[in-house]
Design goal:
201 residues, alpha/beta, 6 helices, 22% strand
């Protein structure tokens, strides 16, 4: 009887959604309970911009508090990788730089917008033997986390179009060999999608 009820439940769910939707829902639930990487994005505005907008991406030289040092230009690199699929005209700064210099370079390149980013917080927990040798504290075992901040600024007027905060954390099944900067690619791509009105729902 129990197997019949289970079979009916599976058939009912199968009739409501296709396989890719079921897989996406499963991935979401597993990330929500902490088994897979998870991120939470909070935007101030829900404005959209044109897909043919020229965006210049830069990262501030700010180092997150503590003793964790992500790759110097990691946020700008991951943002570029996430944006290039949706915005064909994208360029990024090669090194971290202050906002005034980034704005000057964006204007010189003819960009419509400056996407200015920074790593506000990063916690690199022990995830492999090299980390254990470096830290050797049991309370440092666990999953990585990080917070990045984003400002989208119109270059002509220097008007702040949008700001966003993305909080990311690793998962119990994915923490091995991970770093905080390894968590930020998917939410940055999701942010790019939201800027042109593509919903992940």
């Amino acid at each position: 009887m129990r197997s019949l009820v289970l079979l009916l439940a599976v058939l009912a769910l199968g009739g409501c959604m296709n396989v890719s939707d079921m897989a996406e829902e499963t991935r979401y639930q597993m990330s929500d309970v902490g088994l897979l990487d998870h991120s939470n994005s909070r935007r101030v505005n829900n404005l959209r911009i044109q897909p043919d907008s020229f965006i210049y991406i830069a990262q501030g030289p700010f180092a997150p508090p503590g003793s964790v040092y992500p790759r110097p230009n990691a946020v700008a690199e991951e943002a570029f990788n996430g944006f290039i699929e949706y915005f064909p005209m994208v360029r990024r700064a090669r090194t971290p730089e202050g906002i005034d210099r980034a704005m000057a370079e964006a204007r010189a390149a003819g960009a419509h917008y400056l996407l200015y980013t920074r790593f506000a917080n990063a916690d690199d927990r022990i995830g492999n033997m090299d980390d254990w040798i470096d830290q050797e504290y049991v309370d440092r075992l666990g999953i990585d986390s990080g917070v990045i901040q984003i400002m989208l600024i119109e270059t002509n007027t220097q008007y702040l179009i949008d700001t966003a905060t993305i909080k990311s954390r690793g998962g119990l099944l994915t923490f091995h060999d991970n770093r905080p900067e390894d968590l930020i690619g998917p939410p940055l791509q999701q942010y790019a999608r939201s800027l042109i009105g593509i919903s992940d729902q």
